Structures are given as structure tokens and as C-alpha cells.
TrEMBL record:
Residue ranges of domain TFIIS central in the record: 104-194
Domain (TFIIS N-terminal) ranges: 1-43
Subcellular location: Nucleus
Main location per the UniProt record: nucleus
Superkingdom of source: Eukaryota
Protein keywords: Nucleus
Annotated Pfam families: Med26 (PF08711), TFIIS_M (PF07500)
Name of the protein this chain belongs to: TCEA1 protein
Length: 194
């Protein structure tokens, strides 16, 4: 269960399912996702542990077929890599974004998440834009808050700058790189205009 949740492989498999034109790949992906959902939703019983033992066998059976589809379509393989890369690179940083009751910070997190949703890239990649927005906001705020102890105009301007950069139609690769994990939230929060 931990492996399914920490790698977020379900999102990657679902992204491949949506992009695939091969009926066999889509049906196998659907059945795999359903079985994973049963594992995650069901209470811990002996029946679940039996399903866990069966699951590695079914995932190893499905993986070569998914790889065959990926090799036949270069788009699918790149999307699979993009979908799995961010989940691995973001997992350690997710717990660092604590919830906040500060209305300015909450609004900034919402605006950053909305900027990450621009262009629907987050769907194909399978990234959690809400958590990314929170993480970026946390990484922007930490240095400023330590220095100034508030969310003043300097903080708001830095958030606005990041939002404008994420929404920039002339630089869609920036948003994709943030979503994929090529640019981690802490690095994006500290980036300059260059």
C-alpha cells in the first residue's frame, strides 16, 4: 500500500490509459487501477494481504504490455516517464507544506494551483497541482517570513511573479517542468527572471 501511495503509480497508469489507442492496454490499465483502488479503500484484513500477494504478479504481467505500448508510441513512453518522475521527486517534499489559516497564504496557494492548471498539462502528467501550489507557496514564504515575519507586499509580489511565469504562453515548458518535477518547488520559488 505504501508503495502504491508513495509512487502514485496509479496516476501514471491512468495517464497511459487515457493516451493509449490500444484496447488491450486500456482494459488492463482499468483492471489494474480497480484492483489498486480495492487495496487502498478496503480495511486491512487477511483478504487484503492475499490481494497484495496477487498484485505484484498482475503488475508484472501488465508492465511488459504497457512497455510494449510505450515503445510503439514515443509519446506514451515520454508521458509515462513524466508521470512517474514527479511523483518520486515530490513525495519527500509533500509533508513540508503545512496547512495554514492565514487568508493571504491560502489565497496565494489557490492562485498558484490555478496557474499550474493552465493548459491542462497537469492532467496528462498526473501531477497534484494543489499540493505543488502549497509547496511552492511554502518555499516562497519561508525565507521572507523569517526575514519580515509577515505576508506583506514583497511576499505578494514574489507570488504574483511566479504565477505570471507559470501562466506565460511564451514559456509553457516552465509549467511543464515544474509539474514533471524537473524543477522542484523549492528551486522554482527561488528562481530569478533569468
Amino acid at each position: 500500500l505504501f508503495l502504491l501511495q508513495s509512487t502514485r503509480i496509479g496516476m501514471s497508469v491512468n495517464a497511459i490509459r487515457k493516451q493509449s489507442t490500444d484496447e488491450e492496454v486500456t482494459s488492463l490499465a482499468k483492471s489494474l487501477i480497480k484492483s489498486w483502488k480495492k487495496l487502498l479503500d478496503g480495511p486491512s484484513t487477511d483478504k487484503d494481504s492475499e490481494e497484495k500477494k496477487k498484485e505484484p504478479a498482475s503488475s508484472s504481467q501488465n508492465s511488459p504490455e504497457a512497455r510494449e505500448e510505450s515503445s510503439s508510441s514515443s509519446n506514451s513512453s515520454s508521458r509515462k516517464e513524466e508521470g512517474s518522475a514527479p511523483s518520486n521527486s515530490f513525495i519527500p517534499s509533500f509533508p513540508r507544506a503545512p496547512s495554514t489559516s492565514d487568508s493571504v497564504r491560502v489565497k496565494c496557494r489557490e492562485m498558484l494551483s490555478a496557474a499550474l492548471r493552465t493548459g491542462d498539462d497537469y492532467i496528462a502528467i498526473g501531477a497534484d497541482e494543489e499540493e505543488l501550489g502549497s509547496q511552492i507557496e511554502e518555499d516562497i514564504l519561508s525565507p521572507i517570513f523569517q526575514e519580515l515575519k509577515n505576508t506583506d507586499m514583497k511576499y505578494k509580489n514574489r507570488v504574483r511573479s511566479r504565477i505570471a511565469n507559470l501562466k506565460d504562453a511564451k514559456n509553457p515548458n516552465l509549467r511543464k517542468n515544474v509539474l514533471c518535477g524537473n524543477i522542484p518547488p523549492d528551486k522554482f520559488a527561488k528562481m530569478t527572471a533569468e
